Amino acid sequence: MTIIDMHSHFFPMSDPAYAAAAERDGLPWLKETGAGEGMIMVGTRAFRPVRAALWSPAARIEDLDRNGIDMQVICATPVMFGYSRSPADAAESARRFNDQAIEMCAHNPRRLKALAQVPLQDVDLACAEASRAVASGHLGVQIGNHLDNANLDDERLLTFLAHCAEIGAAVLVHPWDMMARDRMPKYMLPWLVAMPAETQLSILSLILSGAFERLPRSLRLCFAHGGGSFAFLLGRVENAWLQRDIVRVDCPNPPSSYLDRFYVDSAVFSPESLQLVVDVMGEDRVLLGSDHPFPLGEEDIGQLVGTHDRLDATVKAKILGGNAAKFLALEDVAA
Fold first, then answer.
1. Is 201 helix (H, G, I), strand (E, B) or coil?
2. How many CB atoms sit inside 10 A of residue 243's CB?
3. How far is it, in rounded angstroms, from Cα 100 to Cα 61?
């Protein structure tokens, strides 16, 4: 069995010229602080302390070896998305970071794979960069779950998703720029409350708008963090669809009928939550995802799945690797 962690993040170390420009222009950059530690900066503001596995492929492989992980997929730290920048500047940054991701994976291309970022604010540039990135070795793309006030059912984003299906790019949807931050100033509440809600919102925007009726079934789509609050609240949504015509006006089929159109990862951190996600989504639709190497990620990658006492060996094998091999179209990976 090949164990594949399909949700982890990276941030390349910034060279002096880029760091100076980013500090001046208020952009994200990475500063090494010594002893295998670093700080993600946004301009002159310290954003998040990080450790070497975020930028060092050697340190990352050490983590994978310690956890018995055969392959890991890296993607941008969401602060890197740059959706508020000009399209041209965002496209340039995406190319830079995507090329750096491929360089990082070249350290051990059998163990490390990548998902690209794109300038999502310009659909033509986003499609072009997705195509370029896939041609250069990326397995697909990671995108944020919304663009300003536009959810995933926005026509521009649907055009981009259809393009990803056309070029065979897997798509990981990751929450970012969380709602109602002014009501959650402390305790990391945006990450604990708004982030799961953002993910549920992005799933429901595709279901209830009827977008899945128009998107090709070949689209391979995964939502991070177990799909946020979606699994727990699906019953509420299903009841609303049955009872209220304003809920089902654009959605011709029950919300539960669309569960075969997307995947979720396993980053839910408790056996009970993982069991719920598997029960709702099905054993073929859950992928191992760790959010490595951040503190809110799974420290012992794969342990939640591997030690679960209610999942049998066949289901564990699917979640730990088999499902990800299908999602990422890794036909040559035995799982």
1. helix
2. 9
3. 17
Strands 221-223 vs 37-42: parallel, antiparallel or unpaired: unpaired
Distance CA 153, CA 208 (A): 9
- Distance between CA 95 and CA 85 in Å, rounded? 14
pLDDT, tens digit, 9 for 90 and up, residues 191-239: 999 999 999 999 999 999 999 999 999 999 999 999 999 999 999 999 9
Beta-sheet strands, E only, within 66-194: 71-76, 112-116, 140-144, 170-174
pTM score: 0.95
pLDDT digits (tens, 9 = 90+) for 13-46: 889 999 999 999 999 999 999 999 999 999 999 9
Q: Which two tokens stand for residue 224?
A: 């991070």
- Measured CA to CA, the distance from residue 156 to residue 136 in angstroms comes to 24
Output the CA–CA distances (angstroms, integers) from residue 27 to 79, 94, 275, 278, in the order listed.
9, 13, 40, 39
